[in-house]
Design goal:
This protein has 571 residues and is mainly alpha-helical. The chain has 27 helices and eleven strands. The strands form five sheets. A three-stranded antiparallel β-sheet has the order 3-4-11. Strands 1-2 form a two-stranded antiparallel ribbon. The longest helix is centred in the middle third of the chain and has 21 residues. The chain is globular, with a radius of gyration of 26 Å. The two termini are 50 Å apart.
């Protein structure tokens, strides 16, 4: 029976075709009609303004401002965007109370984007991945049965096909089905009943398996509907905007209220968008937005892929502890003071007794909010950050400094020259500390030109070892946490330790502009185009007018024209 259900469902998936809006065979909603827009955005419609820049050409905010980069506003291209593994996990949980394991989501272990792991170009689905997901979908379908039990109690009856499809489709496809689509899924339910001696569970499973493999579940559509007065410009449909809001702020599918707002046409203008966006921001699930963004920004999300992480004792438990600490810290900042300054400089860290003891920050007592040692502060002091940006068996000032310079200052580092020997000098003779080993290695004439830009930033992290554990010395030798930040827009800076560095960073326009730019990249799922700088400049200005309020930044990001509009048919 299971093999039959899987085969039927895979056949339905295979014939579902592309996710093009213009299908005429029931494989999608069809091409939407053109719409009137009272005040269409004044954006340029050409390839140069809409094409995301090459990773090697990202702007250096150390030498220019967002205002100077702004020429003519544009918007990104119409596209489809595959869900990330966390988004799929959250959607399954919220829609059908399905708990998907990491192994069941293995098909979605993706390549990394330049900064964020949700970059659309990095999210693919190969043929082998699709086959793997087909097997996982079959296994997961059985765990969906309890959630479907009350939808139609007499599941053995073919009359249950319509309510089952009506229940599943809006939760999994995030839009109403066409009549042709409904008929196909209802027919699948009936055919499964006929082939399995009226086994209602088999019929329900067949629907779930088929829908989970559909491109309309796995991909978000951003194809839009044409704007009558601007050929080549499209505005996302109501259902596309609902999905965009939900997957941006909650990392899951739209809830019933957001789906209803889309059905009522309430997302048709910025005012309606903002009403729903504010509701989402004030929900606890909004913490997923900044937790995911900050985890990628600090590379804390990449602990498991760090070289040597699998050799750490109890690696899975350690990584889970540090992930929880990061989420608790970010959540505390957003719920509390709620500013970028607080994110960078706050000295209180909500943590568990186990995590505190592991990080050498407190004895293993009850859950508490720790006050960090005076030398360290803010998000950069979290264990996940030092763990992810470390060498196999020692801290890495290079990785930590590059992370800060590229992700918090938006000042890209040139790639190292070919054939450069990268072995770190051994700790022997006069080389007593990790810092001295790196200085001996990188202070050579052929290295120092680049390493002076980021090594000193990394030395501020020497208070933490390669596992993110706090330390007062390095092998008995005193720590030197001082350093410099050369070539910022405000000139060269110097600092005494990580806390001092964080405090100074919070005052830099370059840092606040960089954070706004990275917020845009995270929401857009891509690097910026040349036409995006004007939008980001305006978003940043309103962000700073609100004293760096993180919720204000989030709201500005999703009410910008760049969020709702796309270009298409440029050729």
């Amino acid at each position: 029976m299971r093999r039959f259900t899987w085969a039927l469902s895979l056949g339905l998936f295979a014939c579902s075709g592309s996710i093009s809006p213009s299908d005429g065979d029931g494989n999608g909603p069809g091409k939407p009609p053109a719409i009137d827009v009272d005040d269409p955005p004044d954006v340029i419609l050409d390839d140069d303004a809409s094409q995301a820049i090459d990773p090697g050409e990202v702007a250096d905010l150390g030498g220019t401002t967002l205002d100077e980069l702004c020429d003519k506003a544009g918007v990104g291209r119409a596209r489809i965007w595959r869900l990330t593994a966390p988004q799929i996990r959250n959607t399954l949980k919220d829609a059908l109370d399905i708990e998907a394991s990491d192994s069941q989501l293995a098909a979605f272990n993706d390549s990394r984007g330049l900064v964020f792991d949700n970059e659309a170009d990095a999210l693919s689905l190969r043929k082998a991945d699709a086959a793997s997901w087909a097997l996982s979908a079959t296994a997961l379908s059985a765990t969906a049965l309890p959630a479907l039990a009350e939808v139609c109690p007499d599941a053995k009856s073919a009359a249950c096909a319509k309510p089952m499809v009506s229940f599943l489709a809006p939760r999994l496809f995030r839009r109403p089905l066409t009549s042709a689509e409904s008929e196909r899924y209802e027919a699948l339910y009936g055919k499964t009943l006929a082939a399995t001696d009226n086994d209602g569970d088999a019929a329900k499973s067949a629907l779930v398996v088929a829908m989970l493999q559909s491109p309309f579940f796995l991909y978000r559509s951003e194809l839009g509907q044409p704007v009558k007065s601007r050929p080549g410009l499209v505005r996302l449909t109501q259902d596309e905007l609902a999905s965009a809001l939900a997957y941006t702020f909650w990392q899951t599918a739209p809830d019933a209220q957001l789906r209803q707002a889309a059905a009522d046409g309430a997302l048709n203008d910025v005012r309606g968008l903002r009403v729903q966006a504010e509701r989402l921001v004030n929900d606890p699930r909004f913490l997923r937005f900044y937790t995911a963004m900050v985890a990628d920004l600090t590379k804390g999300s990449r602990m498991a892929s760090r070289e040597g992480s699998d050799e750490v004792k109890d690696a899975n438990q350690v990584i889970a502890l540090l992930q929880d600490e990061l989420a608790a810290y970010v959540g505390g900042v957003v719920r509390g003071e709620g500013t970028l300054k607080a994110l960078l400089t706050q000295t209180q860290v909500p943590t568990s007794a186990t995590a505190a003891a592991f990080r050498n920050l407190a004895a293993a007592t009850d859950m508490k909010t720790l006050v960090l040692p005076a030398k360290v502060a803010g998000v950069l002091s979290l264990g996940a950050v030092s763990f992810a940006n470390a060498g196999t068996s020692h801290p890495s000032p290079i990785k930590r400094g590059v992370m800060v310079r590229e992700h918090f200052l938006c000042s890209p580092i040139p790639p190292p020259p070919p054939n450069i020997k990268q072995e770190i000098a051994p700790r022997e003779g006069n080389i007593l500390t990790n810092r001295q080993a790196y200085e001996a290695t990188t202070n050579r004439a052929e290295c120092i030109g680049c390493h002076r830009l980021f090594n000193p930033l990394g030395y501020a992290f020497e208070a933490f070892d390669e596992l993110g554990r706090y330390r007062e010395n390095d092998g008995g030798e005193p720590l030197d946490l001082s350093g410099s930040v050369p070539e910022t827009r405000e000139g060269d800076l110097s600092f005494k330790n990580l806390a001092d560095l964080a405090t100074q960073m919070a005052t830099l326009d370059q840092v606040t502009e960089c954070f706004a730019l990275n917020g845009f990249r995270f929401v857009a799922g891509r690097l910026e185009s040349k036409g995006d700088y004007c939008h980001v400049r305006d978003i940043h200005q309103r962000f700073m007018a609100a004293n760096g309020d993180l919720k204000v930044l989030a709201l500005e990001l999703v009410t910008s024209d760049a969020f709702a509009y796309r270009v298409t048919d440029l050729n």
